[in-house]
Amino acid sequence: MVIYLMIFFASSTLLSLMGMDFVTTLSASIATLGNVCPGLGLVGPMASFDSIPDPGKLILIANMWIGRLEVFTVIVLLTPAFWKR
Prior knowledge:
Blueprint: H1 2-17, H2 22-33, H3 54-69, H4 71-77, H5 80-83
Helix pairs in contact: 1-2, 1-3, 2-3
């Protein structure tokens, strides 16, 4: 749970550093990490993710990947000891 929240806060912070508003960054991060859409603000039901800059889309793609595979699976896949077997 703590790792999930750390990923959520890190992605929200990175998106906010790109100049996006608070509601959009939080809702886009949680919507992609939880694999539920739409979010609020610029990514709401009457909008799309087009307004997000390309580096922000890469962050959200990573969130979708982590959310779909689950956090512990991603941690195991990124651990070098897993690939030595």
